[in-house]
Design brief:
Blueprint (H helix, E strand, L loop, with lengths): L2 E7 L14 E3 L8 E7 L9 E4 L4 E4 L2 H4 L3 E7 L5 E6 L3 E6 L2 E8 L3 E10 L9 E2 L3 E2 L12 E4 L2 E5 L14 E2 L2 E2 L3 E8 L6 E9 L4 E4 L5 E5 L1 E11 L6 E7 L2 E4 L1 E7 L2 E6 L6 E3 L4 E7 L4 E2 L7 E3 L22 E2 L2 E2 L1 E5 L1 E2 L5 E3 L7 E4 L8 E9 L11 E6 L2 E5 L8 E7 L8 E6 L3 E10 L7 E4 L5 E3 L4 E10 L7 E4 L7 E5 L5 E6 L9 E8 L6 E7 L8 E7 H4 L6 E7 L2 E9 L3 E4 L26 E6 L3 E10 L3 E2 L4 E8 L6 E2 L9 E2 L5 E17 L6 E4 L2 E7 L1
Parallel strand pairs: 1-10, 2-7, 3-15, 12-21, 17-27, 43-49
Antiparallel strand pairs: 1-6, 3-9, 4-5, 6-7, 8-9, 10-13, 10-14, 11-19, 13-16, 17-22, 18-21, 18-24, 19-20, 23-26, 24-25, 25-28, 29-41, 30-31, 32-35, 33-34, 34-41, 35-40, 36-39, 36-41, 37-38, 37-40, 42-44, 44-47, 45-48, 46-47, 48-49, 50-62, 51-52, 52-53, 52-54, 53-61, 54-60, 55-60, 55-62, 56-61, ...
Length: 716
């Protein structure tokens, strides 16, 4: 005959780290003939039940309606190694008969001998096999928190007869299940409070563990030295200034306690005198008084703290540092920030940091005595070449770093950190680590928040597809998924060459691509992936030109690829088979000159680029191709800083043979215009040699343009 052990327990609402040789499985109801096994649980006293009402000398315990939803059933067998193996039994039936009586029943296969054990707990370890004493409790003024209670029954071995009744025994119904309570119920009466104060939190800390978890045999494993009792300012101190506090602990002796009481008006803190301690003994209702000293005024701000930071949006970056006094945001008439350094009005949020210093912002004291979360939107500072600074958003609680993000991107993303309780007078600092960045939409609130979902595309983006008919697939995943559904659609509904977009299969979007006709140019379209709560993701699909057609392409050449060291001189280099020259540059990346070499920065050695109004004696430098480039129709340039770089006029020169240069005839853009990062020159498609000519307009000193990038748009 096979022997099974059934274990009964409450379903956990939160997960904790645990490793064990046990392994849990989930099973459905047994199929075939079944027998219902029922138990009652009604023994009163400190050994059983889950809620308490204080009597004259003891506590009487009752079952609560909430208990009914917190029960699950296990079988316990042996695995191949002879180790204990738990299996969840589906859908046990639990019925409350009265305040002091429950019935618990489950259907099992007949003709077996079972050993049953019941457990009741408001919280479990993440393997679902050990009951956890919740260290965050929510008692009332007369009862302890039933979710903090733990009960473990004695084992009950039952032989179940035949389902048809021929061998069925009376042992399958009305079996009395006796519970033991491995935790200790306590009542602490606080004295010297102020009548009418609203109690927010009571935090009890011991030098030893007073919370933890329990094995099925009742063995406690302590892992928490603090218990937090949450009242959330929903109860007030009665006349006389005494307030009863009910709480549950693991058993133990020699506890020296520190108690912190936070109300809407004061914070009271007191520790046991040196050498004094209290015992929490099994089977006893521990009662004691605790006289508090005078409280300290509670100046901490309550949560939530919310700041959109719209006050910081300036449309452009401001170079004047902000002080705390410059920040207008308040709560309950108090400033929500207490310290700031290297923060500025910004383009689209509060700017943090300068080229040399990191920025941070610190809140005033906040009541963080219960679990909370921090959420902000942040992005990196971006230079003139649209390259984001390598930066991260970082959160600190009372000066200790608790979270640092991955590198920020050029666009805003939301960053969330769920934090454990700190203190009733804690501060949060937010800073941009690394370099510079922007922050907006700050929220600090109690509880926890799930980070928003994020669409991640695994397929190359942009996608390149052939000019023939084909079916394509976009592979994706969702980080932090919800019960939402992904959608996909063309950004431009008029695009006809992409059709049959299908997103019914999780993880992929499929679509059909029509063939190109002969002579057709390359084409592009965008498919937008959307998911409620997530930022949309655009996937670009590029299709090659039809037979005999043309494809538009681009390439970029950087001054840092041509200028090979810090000295100022003429530089030449070959990059990707194309030849390039900068007639005068240095600083490993710059076009132009420092003040000491200014007189040398002319076109006297490269006279072919001296095209009127620029002369051979002008202070100027050309960034030129020395090999012919085919099919060019647009050239644009960017730069990033320099010295007196604003004092520059820019020209585009062209030569069919590499010797005779003249100003290019433009269809868009202006010859000789003042330098402007991102400027474009458009012209009729041609092949040949090209030079972007930079002319200084200042009359002395350095003239240097850093990180010049030329981008060529061409057809092939």
């Amino acid at each position: 005959m096979k022997k099974l052990i059934y274990t009964l327990g409450i379903i956990a609402a939160a997960a904790f780290t645990f490793s064990s040789c046990q392994k849990e499985q989930s099973i459905e109801k047994p199929s075939g003939k079944l027998v219902t096994v029922s138990f009652t649980a009604e023994k009163a006293g400190l050994d059983t039940k889950t809620a308490a009402v204080e009597g004259d000398t003891e506590v009487s315990f009752i079952w609560t309606d909430e208990d009914l939803t917190n029960i699950k059933l296990f079988t316990v067998g042996e695995d191949a190694d002879g180790k204990e193996e738990l299996t969840v039994v589906a859908n046990p039936t639990i019925t409350k008969v009265s305040d002091t009586k429950l019935t618990i029943s489950a259907q099992v296969a007949p003709n077996e001998t079972y050993t049953f054990k019941a457990m009741l707990s408001g919280k479990w370890t993440n393997d679902g096999k050990k009951a956890r004493l919740n260290d965050s409790q929510s008692p009332s003024v007369t009862n302890f928190d039933p979710k903090a209670d733990v009960l473990i029954s004695d084992n009950m071995e039952v032989t179940v007869g035949d389902a048809e009744g021929e061998e069925e025994t009376a042992a399958t119904s009305d079996l009395e299940m006796v519970f033991r309570r491995p935790v200790v119920v306590n009542k602490m009466t606080l004295k010297n409070l102020k009548a009418g104060e609203a109690i927010d939190k009571v935090v009890i800390t011991s030098g030893k563990e007073i919370a933890g978890y329990f094995y099925a045999d009742g063995t406690p494993i302590g892992d928490k030295k603090t218990i937090t009792l949450n009242y959330n300012k929903e109860v007030t101190v009665p006349e006389g200034g005494q307030f009863p506090v009910y709480f549950i602990t693991t058993p133990g002796t020699g506890h020296s306690l520190t108690v912190e009481v936070t109300t809407d008006q004061f914070i009271y803190t007191k520790s046991f005198a040196e050498g004094k301690s209290i015992d929490f003994n099994l089977g006893q209702f521990t009662k004691f008084n605790f006289a508090l000293p005078a409280g300290v005024a509670n100046t901490a701000l309550s949560l939530p703290i919310e700041d959109s930071m719209e006050w910081a949006v300036n449309g452009s970056d401001d170079n004047a540092q902000l002080n705390v006094a410059d920040i207008p945001v308040t709560k309950d008439g108090k400033k929500i920030y207490s310290e700031a350094s290297y923060i500025y009005l910004g383009i689209d949020g509060l700017k943090f940091g300068s080229s040399s210093y990191r920025g941070f912002l610190t809140t005033s004291e906040l009541d963080l005595s219960s679990a909370f979360y921090i959420s902000v939107s942040a992005r990196a500072w971006v230079n003139s070449t649209n390259t984001p600074d390598v930066s991260q958003v970082e959160f600190l609680v009372d000066g200790e770093s608790v979270y640092k993000s991955d590198n920020l991107s050029a666009g805003f993303n939301t960053y969330v950190f769920n934090a454990p309780a700190a203190t009733a007078n804690s501060k949060i600092s937010i800073r941009i680590a690394g370099k510079r960045g922007y922050i907006k939409d700050l929220v600090i609130n109690t509880g926890a928040i799930l980070p928003p979902p994020v669409i991640k595309v695994a397929t190359a983006n942009p996608m390149t597809v052939a000019n023939t008919t084909s079916s394509q697939t976009i592979e994706y995943s969702i980080d932090n998924p919800t019960d939402a559904t992904l959608n996909a659609a063309l950004k431009d509904p008029s695009v006809a060459w992409i059709s049959n977009i299908d997103y019914d299969t999780d993880g992929e979007v499929t679509f059909d691509v029509a063939a190109q006709v002969e002579g057709a140019a390359a084409r592009s379209a965008v498919i937008v992936l959307s998911y409620e709560g997530a930022d949309d993701v655009e996937v670009t699909v590029n299709q090659a030109a039809g037979p005999g057609g043309t494809t538009t392409k681009t390439f970029t050449i950087k001054s840092s690829e041509v200028v090979s060291n810090s000295g100022y001189a003429k530089y030449e280099a070959t990059v990707d088979t194309r030849g390039w020259m900068i007639t005068f540059g240095g600083n490993n990346k710059s076009v132009g000159t420092n003040s000491g070499n200014r007189a040398k920065c002319t076109l006297s050695d490269c006279t072919k680029y001296a095209v009127s109004p620029v002369t051979t004696s002008s202070i100027a430098s050309a960034f030129a191709s020395t090999t012919s480039i085919d099919g060019v129709k647009k050239i644009s340039y960017t730069f990033n800083g320099g010295s007196n770089q604003a004092n520059t006029n820019v020209y585009l020169l062209y030569s069919a043979n590499g010797t005779d240069f003249s100003q290019m005839t433009l269809t868009s853009g202006t010859q000789g215009a003042a330098i402007s990062s991102g400027a474009e020159f458009e012209f009729a498609k041609c092949s040949g040699y090209f030079a972007v000519l930079f002319e200084a307009t200042n009359t002395s000193g350095a003239w240097r343009i850093d990180d010049v990038n030329l981008t060529f748009t061409y057809e092939e």
